[in-house]
Amino acid sequence: MILLMTTAPPEKSPWSVPMRLPPLGLSYVAAALEKAGFKVEMLDNYMLKKSTDDIKQMIKKLNPEIVGITCSSASYPRCVETAKAIKEALPSCKVVVGGWHPSYMPNSMLQHSEIDYIIMGEGERAMTELATYITKGEDEKAIVQIAGVAYRHEGKTVKTAQKFIIDLDVLPFPARHLLPMHLYEREIPYLRAKPFDTMNIVRGCPFNCVYCETRRLWGQTCRAFSPRRVVDEIKHLATNYGTKGIYFVGDNFTIKKKRTIELCELIKKSKLNVEWVCDTRADMVSRDLLKSMKEAGCQTIWFGVESGSPRILEKINKGITNEQTIQAFKLCREEGIQIACSFILGIPGETVKDMEVTYKFAKKLDPDWCQFNIFIAVPGSGLYDEVMQKGLHDRVEGFLAYVKTEDFNYESLLEIQKRYQSDLDLSPKRILRKIRREGFWTVLKKGPRYLRRLA
């Protein structure tokens, strides 16, 4: 038996995600293992937050041959703590760790004897092949044939080359049946339809934004599930979980215009009656595309604008101009699609004046929802290397670097973020928009904190 689990969230961390959503990546791995004939259990400990003593009891009860743990740089300490607890409860159990952080820094995981193997990059095929290798007791030489794994051998770390799954349609639907779906949030501000669920239909990114580490995990070639496969999964969600809304998570939903229009046409033809949200770039939308998306149920598009300063946009290698963003927002409004967007504060080399330019640009854009995020350097991105090499930080927690320059530190950024978010969210114009969107009594009942969350 194989147990797959998420790591409990770090305490008092800006990286703790407030929304309770299913771990899609781990669910894909679970489904692939089930398809290969393995018995699988899942523990979403990011949500359930079980103690190490509880985990020990669970391990003794289930007696798994393998435990797979997903790990980010923020949850690294908790992941190591969990691995130690597993080995204390069941020394014979093999501990495999995958996810963002192990993919970029496998040596940092394998320095802990409690961790036996690392999965780097996509986990479905690698984990299935590794589980077969472990459970069948194959010759040690066989492991070198498994792509995307790291392990210790004669005191050294051995890493095999990663290979990406080209035809994503070979993957089964995520194993949501192994998760407590009734405990997750099923409504989201960007959709009126509920309950909603998340789907991921695109992997990989050809762009090279220096603040982002996505292409290091998924590769620089963009791959997508076929429109038919996407529609089949929507039908599966509607039938089994009553789903009426979808959030297509992933940065490049519209990167292939022809495929996106084909998907929209198939959604309409299938009469799914589903509303949805997606993420994309401002330079990857057009009027005819937006019209097709709206007719197929698209209600909101999330754009990562990042900055209003042309100098900072060039610094982060965004590849999008303010004029393109303005035009994209204009087209969305004209086609009746709501707009959500985010900005980053605290890029190394940024000044407070640059941040003021960003704030003024956000006001000019006037999106339906707007979020200001503080940059914290994480492994895998180009900016992380710059921050670490130049010492542009005042502290490093685990592997997260809190940026400090002559112009700001994390604490001063918190004050700027709070001021920008509050000034923008609580303007009379935006409060009235929220009331029209959500209803007066809903807004009044939930109060100021709800206003800030929705804006």
For the structure shown, list the relevant keywords.
seven-stranded mixed β-sheet, 455 residues, TIM Barrel, alpha/beta, globular, 2 domains, 18 helices, disordered C terminus, Rossmann fold, 42% helix
Textual characterization of the structure:
It is a single chain. The protein is 42% helix and 18% strand. It has 455 residues and is α/β, with parallel strands linked by helices. It folds into 2 domains: 2-159, Rossmann fold (3-Layer(aba) Sandwich); 186-454, Aldolase class I (TIM Barrel, Alpha-Beta Barrel), CATH 3.20.20. A 7-stranded mixed sheet has the order 2-1-3-4-5-6-7, with helices on both faces. Strands 8-11-12-13-14-15 form a 6-stranded parallel sheet. Helix 1 packs across helix 7 (124-136), helix 3 (52-62) crosses helix 4 (76-89) and helix 17 packs across helix 18 (440-454). The longest helix has 16 residues, at 410-425. The chain starts with a strand and ends with a helix. Residues 450-455 have low confidence and may be disordered.
Distance between the termini: 45 Å
Radius of gyration: 22 Å
**What's the CATH architecture name of the largest domain?**
Alpha-Beta Barrel
Are there runs of 5+ residues with pLDDT below 50, and where? 450-455
CATH topology of the largest domain: TIM Barrel
Q: Mind summarizing the main beta sheet?
A: 7 strands, mixed
Class from helix and strand fractions? alpha/beta
Number of domains: 2
Q: Topology, pairings included?
A:
Blueprint: E1 2-6, H1 24-35, E2 40-43, H2 45-48, H3 52-62, E3 66-70, H4 76-89, E4 94-98, H5 100-104, H6 106-110, E5 117-119, H7 124-136, E6 149-153, E7 156-159, E8 196-199, E9 202-203, H8 214-218, E10 223-224, H9 227-241, E11 245-248, H10 257-270, E12 275-280, H11 287-295, E13 298-306, H12 310-315, H13 322-334, E14 338-345, H14 352-365, E15 369-374, E16 376-377, H15 382-390, E17 393-397, E18 400-403, H16 410-425, H17 428-438, H18 440-454
Parallel strand pairs: 1-2, 1-3, 3-4, 4-5, 8-11, 11-12, 12-13, 13-14, 14-15
Antiparallel strand pairs: 5-6, 6-7, 9-10, 16-18, 17-18
Helix pairs in contact: 1-7, 3-4, 9-10, 10-11, 17-18
